[in-house]
Amino acid sequence: MAAQPIDRLPTPPRRKKRLLGGLLLGGLLLGGLLLGGRAAWPWLQAAPQHAVLLNARQPIAEFRLDSTLGHPLSLSQLGERYTLFYFGYTTCPDICPTTLADLSQAQRLLGEQAQKLQMVFVTVDPERDTVERLRDYLAYFGPEWIGLAGPPAATANVASQFGVVYQKQPARGSATEYLIDHSSVVVLLDPQHRPLLLFPYGVSGEQIAEDLAATMR
Amino acid sequence: MSVSSSQPAPSHRELSGPQAHESWGHRRLIGLWLALLAIPLLAVGLFAVLQPVQVLPRIGLAPGFLWSDLNGQTFSSELLRGKLVVYNFTSATCTAPCLDGSATMQQLQDRIDVLDTGGLPVTLVTVLLDGTESDPALLRTYAARWKADPERWRFVTAPADRLKQGVGGGFGLYYTATAAGEVTFAPLTVLVDGNGILRAQYKRTLPDLAFVERDLGLIAAEVRNSSGAGGLVYEAAHLFACYASY
After folding, report:
1. Do residues B86 and B191 lie in contact, with contact meaning Cβ atoms separated by under 8 Å?
2. Among positive and negative, which fits the CA dihedral B25, B31, B37, B39?
3. What are the residues whose beta carbons fall under 8 Å from the beta carbon of B66, sequence distance 6 or more?
4. CA atoms A145, A146, A149, A150: torsion sign
5. Which listed site, A140, B20, B138, B176, has its alpha carbon 20 to 30 Å from A77?
6. B245 falls in which pLDDT band (50, 70, 90)?
């Protein structure tokens, strides 16, 4: 009985070629999966380390306030960019300037990525903070800021949408007639104007930049 | 010059020896990579269909408000950060057929101690739509009926204009109040998590206590388990979550 032919094993170079081909194909598939996953689930890539992840479904409702750009500005006119909102007032003694400085530092640290970001300061003291006063104040923190001011009712409405509250407190013996207690959170909206991240007070500029860089990739 | 042009190319079956081995090897390799591709796709599909990790949607930011309790003390949404909050909206003049959710709140108050919220504090807030313009004694009498523990269950109200802005614009409940003090509204109960995000709305009818308890448990489980890699699983669950509002 004739012996069955025994297949020769592939020569070593062939095996190497096949191995390389397999690795290449595997790499391509893995890369495709990662890229696809990244495109489909950006938030999986963007787990914030210092901010609270909001990732809310409902966008902030449209509003329109006077702006330091010299004309009224609506939310939709801010365009499809990430937007950082901070509510404060120009005679705020401590928290506001600290937070604004941290945010400006974060924007500088972002480098080119900062082009995807708009910073907005909304005054909770519309009685004293005129647009001109806002413009002068924000100039200390950089040209990237847009200041918004509106009538008290409209301001309260906008602030409430961001979960922000504020209240006048008499300030005896102070140069200012009153101070305003206000929420000191910073809210990042995504390009569709949905609340995405919330930075509590005390997060540093570096930490804010770190989370923004991861989120806006 | 053609070589062996008259001979037909060997069919697949005719391959033998090293060629057959190579072809089989190629097919095995392709099959392997297809399987590798199919596994994550299948896993994603199963995750979406079976929902092994359940989450409540992050509906939107709950409104910020500055209202007052029935003693006239300021009651701000800032006081509620870090707590699970159950809101209901009603009127001190709500009697049948008006649907009053405060009975459910009372039941919930009695069960807070046995609920597994992972140590997260739960606060109940009943918003009286009557407004501060109405008779304060009437509001206090209403609140006293429910034997509320002030540490757990707060009754709040505000001037009519501020209340309308917060309740209508913020919580999406539109109601009418006549000069005679009659308030018409549809029942609404809302869950807000510790980050101030609306997580559940039970609209138009009184909520089933079991649903509210289940949903509080879901939020607590998410807080407990969503650190590190668990966070990615929960974010994936949010991607596929498609719960209707109750």
Report:
1. yes
2. negative
3. A165, A166, A167, B74, B75, B76, B77, B158, B162
4. negative
5. A140
6. very low
Report pLDDT digits (tens) over B67-109: 999 888 999 999 999 999 999 999 998 888 889 999 999 999 9
Judge whether residue B230 has pLDDT over 60: yes
Alpha-carbon gap, residue A111 to B189, rounded angstroms: 45
Chain B residues touching A40 at Cβ < 8 A: 239
Nearest CA distance, A6 vs chain B (angstrom): 7
- Give the closest residue to B109 by CA, choosing from B145, B147, B83: B147
Residue type present at position A195: P
Find the angle CA(B88)-CA(B94)-CA(B98) to the nearest 5 degrees. 90
**Gyration radius of chain A over CA positions:** 26
- Contact list in B for residue A54 (CB cut-off 8 A) is 58, 61, 195, 197
**Residues of chain A whose C-beta is under 8 A from some C-beta in B?**
5, 7-8, 10, 14, 18, 21-22, 25-26, 29, 33, 40-41, 43-44, 47, 52, 54-58, 60-61, 153, 156-157, 159-167, 183, 187, 194-195, 198
Q: In the numeric block, which tokens belong to residue A128?
A: 């004293």
Q: Enumerate the residues of chain A whose CB falls inside 8 A of the CB of residue B22.
A: 10, 14
Q: Is B62:B197 a contact under the CB 8 Å cutoff?
A: yes
Q: Kind of pairing, strands B122-128 and B153-157? A: parallel
**CB spacing of A160 vs B78 below 8 angstroms:** no
Q: Does the distance separating the beta carbons of A33 and B169 come in below 8 Å?
A: no
Which chain B residues are closer than 8 Å to A161 by Cβ? 61, 63, 169-170
Nearest C-alpha of chain B: how many angstroms from A86? 14
What pTM does this model have?
0.77
Asked if A22 lies within 8 A of B33 by C-beta distance, the reply is: yes
Residues B31-51 have pLDDT tens digits of: 888 888 888 778 777 766 666
Q: Which residues of B touch A52 (CB under 8 A)?
A: 195
Contact (CB, 8 A) for A166 and A182: yes
Helix, strand, coil percentages, rounded to 5, for chain A: 40, 20, 40
- Go through chain A and tell me how many residues it has: 217
Domains of chain A plus CATH, in order, are 18-216 (3.40.30.10)
SS3 B30: helix
ipTM of the complex: 0.74
For residue A188, give the H/E element and its range.
Answer: strand A186-189
Q: Choose among B229, B205, B201: nearest CA to B215.
A: B201
